[in-house]
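ok, trying the design again with the full structure, not the truncated one.
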């Protein structure tokens, strides 16, 4: 690691600013073309440092920026294991973090031009403060917004993102982002009876993306939930909004989803062995959602599963729950 001098212009990161967003502001204010030319001074050539646990790397960045190591590392995503990383103190599967893609709220940038760390969570598709969808591409040149840009709020084509006037979303489209904001900040969401409210952030998103994979795919035994973080934000927003609504009036809307999925499977495979297909689905749920926090999800499917096996269908399961 190269030794470095402190940058000419330095300042502290904002409370809710992302690490790469902070470095981009520094690069812009110190007349660097982008973040990486600035970091090359200390021997860094890519963005892999964002998931590093190497304290020496952050010592060098701290020397360059003039802020403490703790301020930097609290905004990074250090690996906990091969799959888990930390996000603001929450152990989280790395697939739920946007390590490459970038999203911004143009209205937030207009108010104060810096990148909020919450935008780097893949299921946060909206800004609940300004009731709008986050954007990931320049509306003029169509280029995806990148961490390799020169300015926080200006595209490479010189279009100013702050001039965008995004359309307002409906209230139900903002509920998920509001809920995630609350969980990230260790607060109780205003709907205290919501089944996801008592979960860790990781379990919250595991369940959400599992349901989303059912909404998206045509095979509800398919392992496809981790494909979702890579779809366009507009499509992801639509899918996650539908998926989050499944947890309203739990578990009845979940049963309706399962009914829909079974009707969708009017194929040869399901006609041959509908019970076997349900059994494989149940086995997957038991394997992937074994955490004690997720017992409500396993129990809900077991009730549906048992209702199908006694030949009375999911409606019987729903009626049975309604009586208890």
């Amino acid at each position: 690691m190269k030794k470095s001098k402190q940058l000419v212009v330095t300042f502290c990161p904002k409370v809710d600013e992302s690490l790469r967003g902070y470095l981009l502001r520094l690069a812009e204010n110190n007349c660097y073309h982008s973040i990486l030319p600035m970091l090359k001074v200390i021997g860094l050539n890519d963005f892999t440092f964002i998931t590093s646990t190497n304290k020496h790397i952050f010592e060098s960045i701290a020397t360059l920026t003039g802020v403490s190591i703790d301020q930097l590392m609290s905004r990074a995503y250090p690996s906990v294991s091969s799959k888990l990383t930390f996000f603001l103190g929450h152990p989280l599967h790395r697939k739920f973090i946007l390590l490459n893609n970038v999203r911004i709220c143009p209205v937030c940038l207009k108010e104060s031009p810096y990148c909020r760390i919450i935008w780097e969570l893949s299921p946060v598709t909206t800004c609940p403060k300004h009731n709008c969808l986050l954007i990931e591409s320049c509306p003029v040149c169509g280029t995806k917004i990148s961490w390799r840009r020169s300015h926080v709020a200006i595209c490479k084509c010189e279009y100013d993102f702050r001039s965008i006037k995004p359309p307002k979303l409906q209230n139900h489209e903002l509920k998920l982002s509001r809920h995630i904001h609350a969980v990230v900040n260790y607060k109780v969401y205003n709907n205290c009876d919501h089944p996801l409210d008592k979960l860790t952030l990781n379990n919250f998103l595991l369940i959400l993306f599992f349901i989303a994979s059912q909404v998206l795919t045509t095979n509800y035994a398919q392992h496809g939930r981790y494909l979702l973080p890579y779809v366009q934000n507009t499509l992801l927003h639509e899918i996650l909004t539908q998926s989050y609504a499944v947890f309203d009036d739990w578990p009845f809307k979940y049963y309706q989803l399962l009914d829909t999925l079974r009707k969708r499977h009017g194929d040869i495979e399901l006609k041959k062995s509908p019970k076997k297909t349900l059994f494989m689905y149940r086995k997957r749920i038991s394997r992937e959602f074994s955490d004690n926090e997720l017992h409500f999800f396993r129990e809900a499917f077991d009730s549906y599963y048992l209702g199908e096996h006694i030949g009375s269908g999911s409606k019987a399961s729903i009626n049975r729950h309604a009586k208890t």
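Keeping the full-length input from now on. The longest helix spans residues 201-216.
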